[in-house]
Amino acid sequence: MAHVGDGNLHPLLVTEHGDALAQVRARAAFDDIIADALELGGTVTGEHGVGLLKRPGLTRELGPAVLEVHRAVKRALDPAGILNPGKVFGPA
């Protein structure tokens, strides 16, 4: 599930709890969806932000230089590192 048509990509893939094989397949499908979005010129972000699952896609989308700009802004606004520690724009 997602509403990609308006530019907001946040797929939801549901698996049965405890079905490790289904979870592996769902993760592979999720990665394919992110890769396809980027290949088509889209973005991994949506109105809800990036999230931890999309972090690898964001890295592919933005590249190291732009990610470092984001990290610099984060360091400037949160020098103690207390806002969402260890999340998307944490240390490289």
Question: Can you offer a commentary on this structure?
Answer:
With 92 residues, the chain is mainly α. It is 47% helix and 0% strand. The protein has 2 helices and no strands. It has helices spanning 20-39, 55-77. The longest helix is centred in the C-terminal third of the chain and has 23 residues, at 55-77. The termini are far apart. The model has no long low-confidence stretch (mean pLDDT 84).
Concise description?
It contains 2 helices and no strands.
Oligomeric assembly: single chain
Relative strand content:
under 5%
The low-confidence parts are none
Order of helices and strands: HH
Number of helices: 2
Shape: globular
Radius of gyration using CA atoms only: 15 Å
Kindly state the number of beta strands: 0
Percent of residues in helical segments? 40-55%
Mean of residue pLDDT?
Answer: 84
Main structural class: mainly alpha
Distance between the termini: 31 Å
Largest sheet: none
Which secondary structure elements does this structure contain, and how are they paired or packed?
Blueprint: H1 20-39, H2 55-77
Features:
mainly alpha, 92 residues
